[in-house]
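User: Structure please.
Assistant: Input sequence and predicted structure:
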Amino acid sequence: TPPITLCVVNFNGEHRLEETFEAAFACGWQFPQVLMVDDASTDASVELVRRRFPQVSLVCLPRNAGPGAARNAGFAAATSPYILFVDNDVRLGRDAPRLLVEALRETPGALIVAPRVLYASMPSHIQYDSADCHFLGLMSPRHADRPVADVPAGSIQRTGSVVTACFLMDRARWRHGAPFDEDFGFNLEDHDFGVRANLFGHLTLVQPHATVLHGGGTPGLSYRPGYDTPPRRVFYLVRNRWYVLAKNFSWRTLILLAPALLIFECVQVLGLARKGWLSPWRAALRSLLASRKALRHKRRDVQVNRTQRDVAILRAGPLPFTAAVTSGRLERRVIGSLSRLLNGYWYLVRRLI
């Protein structure tokens, strides 16, 4: 069995870390290296780990640059051929590392495998089985919010993207510098990484028999059912979807999808205005325009290194919006009609992409 570095990514997780590390040490796998990358926490996270888990090596970042930067630091500090990233509110299930390792080793060309993620507050429901890339640039989580009983764990499957609450990565296969784009800040930095990995010819997988429990996320940024959507989350989701499109989609794809992208954007603006979220949209647009020079360089790197066409990973399907967007009857009707319209357009042009 290959050695695995366990890397816990933490920001202000003092009240979660004991459960996270205790679950990791009880999951039936011996990790030769255990890291915690602390993303400039302001609570007593670091002191807690030093006191309770002295076997954990700490990587303390001087400033909070988002989870992508923290994972890059863990990737650089790891010494094992495989690295298992775990967020500070994720509890590994029994045998999860073994099942992930087997999936990675038994699938030629596999770079990443993710487990089935369940809500810690409601383990009977799936939060997601990793994700795919919607042709509009959105991250499309698989089986989101569905009861476990309705989606029996099947075989290992290929995905078009990655959700990074927990995932195992073969470090030796990645030869494209730091895995994560740190300019994304928070949200969709994992989607961008998963899309690039697939375009570069790697395989990303989900192993639904491996399960983890996912807690409450990052306060002020993560969305959970029953809570308000933070404006900062709206900003990052809007801007970072544009980043994904600008960096990763070919010009041919962008031109062919331009009518669908324009219709979606117009409806999105109207929807954001109805929710009172136009200010984050305007801030996202200003940030995109200010980043255009850097995006040109990043786009060139992606297009030079890609080996796959966009159509190999893009998927149609319902627009992947959370309950915060689809809470009203009008919103659901509009989104349903929009989804049917745009999916119809996709089926017309996909053979040309």
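The chain is about 40% helix and 20% strand.
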